[in-house]
Design goal:
By secondary structure, the chain is of the alpha+beta class. The protein is 24% helix and 41% strand. The chain is built from three helices and seven strands, in the order βαβββαβαββ. The chain has a seven-stranded mixed β-sheet, sandwiched between helices.
């Protein structure tokens, strides 16, 4: 099998990226990314994009600094489905951790859905440890445009960055 290597870069997600982010979630999620960009401009969060050499996002994720006083909360982490298991998620998380330490915070936290063992294995491999559980929910949009509430249970995980 041939091996292909592509240089990736990590930068802030931009408004111009949104039309290329349909792989990251439903139409409602992509529209809500615009709200996250406003929060990033206000300094409340960082929202990162891992991009190909031509600037197309292939992974996205946020760091929210308003959830916990002493930690950056990673959320909405995702890698394009066709590119999973290529190390892109690791690059995204390491970059998010660098943003957290740049704000002089010593811990990263996240919640992972309990029915997503693949993601949990990645987080554990990167040094995250479970410390609790909590329910989570968000709105999702069906193909017909209707909105419903998605509910799940998440394992809470944390990592000391210092």
């Amino acid at each position: 099998m041939a091996e292909i290597r592509i240089a990736l870069s990590v930068r802030d997600l931009a408004q111009a990226d949104l039309p290329s982010c349909g792989w990251a979630g439903d139409a409602l999620h992509v529209r809500q990314l615009a709200d996250q960009l406003r929060r990033a401009e206000a300094g409340e969060i960082d929202y990162l994009a891992v991009c190909t050499p031509v600037g197309l996002p292939v992974a996205l994720g946020g760091v929210d600094y308003t959830v916990k006083e002493s930690a950056g909360m990673l959320w909405q982490l995702g890698v394009h489905p066709a590119l999973q298991s290529c190390g892109i998620g690791t690059l995204l998380i390491r970059s998010a951790e660098q943003r957290i330490t740049a704000r002089s915070l010593a811990r990263a936290e996240l919640g992972v859905e309990e029915d997503n063992p693949r993601a949990r294995a990645l987080y554990e491999r990167l040094g995250y440890r479970a410390y609790g559980r909590e329910p989570d929910s968000w709105d999702v949009e069906a193909e017909n445009g209707s909105i419903r509430r998605y509910e799940t249970m998440c394992t809470l995980m944390r990592k000391d960055l210092v």
